[in-house]
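TICKET: design request
STATUS: open
ATTACHED STRUCTURE:
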């Protein structure tokens, strides 16, 4: 009975302890952003936010970011009838970057942060955004649907890991291995451009009896990198949390 009570108490402390910073409307999570382009990108975003018309708010920009994802998915699907539509997919990625990266910056510049609402909306839309774009890419001639879904799995694993750590540590990690959302968008835009112009798009590669197109192989490697980063981070943080919350020895009276 005593052991059951201890387990219940531990679970209650872990999952039901209120975050008073968020309840008071204060910024509760420290943003950890150390990507390659972070310094330059931050200056550009602040410059744009300071010149944004007052009638535009963060919700509008979040919506624009999602429209960019829809444009990107549409471009991928239409590329079945002409590779030039991949330019639309790349433009959609730019629109997505503009809205998704600027919504939070605008709120901070205007001192109009809404930590609870903003975190909920922003990251709910993020999951939907990446899902839409991966489905669109999987329905294009660029990569196979299965590889696109594997990339989505890698993204979702890292996202879940990030959100768990945000809750447990109050730290929101945006970049892994110096790569953040902006860097990944640029990588995808580069892949789109190579697919349009290079004749190697039909090149086939064989690996362990499986045959993949060159761009399927690139997508597979990207998915493996995401999953590898997740696994390494999981093992590292598992050791850390084991020290913070060691096992309790069962004792009987």
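STATUS: resolved
RESOLUTION: sequence designed for all positions
ATTACHED SEQUENCE:
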């Amino acid at each position: 009975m005593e052991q059951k009570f201890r387990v219940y108490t531990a679970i209650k402390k872990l999952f039901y302890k209120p975050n008073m910073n968020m309840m008071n409307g204060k910024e509760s999570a420290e943003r950890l952003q150390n990507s390659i382009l972070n310094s330059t990108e931050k200056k550009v975003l602040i410059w744009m936010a300071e010149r944004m018309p007052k009638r535009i708010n963060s919700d509008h920009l979040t919506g624009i970011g999602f429209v960019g994802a829809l444009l990107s998915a549409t471009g991928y699907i239409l590329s079945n009838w002409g590779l030039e539509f991949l330019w639309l997919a790349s433009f959609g990625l730019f629109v997505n970057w503009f809205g998704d990266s600027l919504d939070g910056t605008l709120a901070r510049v205007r001192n109009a942060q809404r930590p609870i609402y903003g975190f909920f909306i922003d990251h709910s839309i993020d999951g939907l955004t990446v899902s839409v774009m991966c489905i669109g890419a999987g329905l294009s001639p660029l990569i196979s649907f299965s590889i696109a879904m594997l990339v989505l799995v890698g993204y979702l694993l890292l996202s879940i890991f990030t959100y768990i750590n945000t809750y447990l540590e109050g730290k929101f990690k945006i970049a892994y291995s110096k790569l953040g959302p902006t860097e990944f968008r640029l990588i995808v835009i580069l892949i789109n451009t190579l697919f349009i112009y290079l004749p190697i798009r039909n090149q086939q590669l064989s690996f362990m009896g499986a045959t993949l197109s060159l761009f399927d192989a690139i997508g597979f490697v990207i998915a493996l990198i995401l999953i590898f980063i997740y696994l390494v981070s999981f093992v590292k943080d598992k050791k850390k949390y084991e020290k913070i919350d060691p096992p309790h020895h069962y004792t009987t009276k």
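CLOSING REMARK: The radius of gyration is 21 Å. Confidence is low (pLDDT under 50) at residues 1-27.
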